[in-house]
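for the writeup, i need someone to sanity check this before i put it in the appendix. the sequnce is what the collaborator sent (i think, or maybe the updated version? ugh). structure was predicted straight from it, no edits. if anything looks off just tell me and ill rerun, i have time this weekend
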Amino acid sequence: MTIRAYKGVLPTLAEGVYVDESSVLVGDIVLAKDVSIWPLVVARGDVNYIRIGARTNVQDGSVLHLSRPSNGKPEGSPLIIGEDVTVGHKVMLHGCTLGNRILIGMGAIVMDDVIVEDDVIIGAGSLVPPGKRLQSGYLYVGSPAKQARPLNDNEKAFLTESASNYVQLKNEYLAG
């Protein structure tokens, strides 16, 4: 894996973290316990910071970035991801805040200052435009993403199941 400092700050990895050797992590990034970062993920904590909660998985080819502080927004837009989040293949997350138990479908884009509450599914290929808030308990789809319907009990249960499956898989990778 490639872990690089930016301005003297290195990513911090908690116990049980798996980072694929083809991924690149730069700068002010903190990965909590049992996070998994899969092949070809790029995460740049250079102009702001990235925080990823326990048991979250970021799948192949995803890009994680943020926005720098500016005159109009002195704190900029960091990237904050909660616990038990599944970030599908080739997802772009940019300066947004994600709660817990979320699934982001393949190829989705979530832009600056978006807030995604807990227990949400964002459909594959969806575009969540800047500043939008996604309410807890719903499926969102489309470009721009719109609330499609409430999640059913099986879908809500799958959110933690998906995260647990990836914890098990990363443990197998770590064991060799």
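The chain has one helix and 20 strands. The longest strand covers residues 42-52.
thx in advance!!
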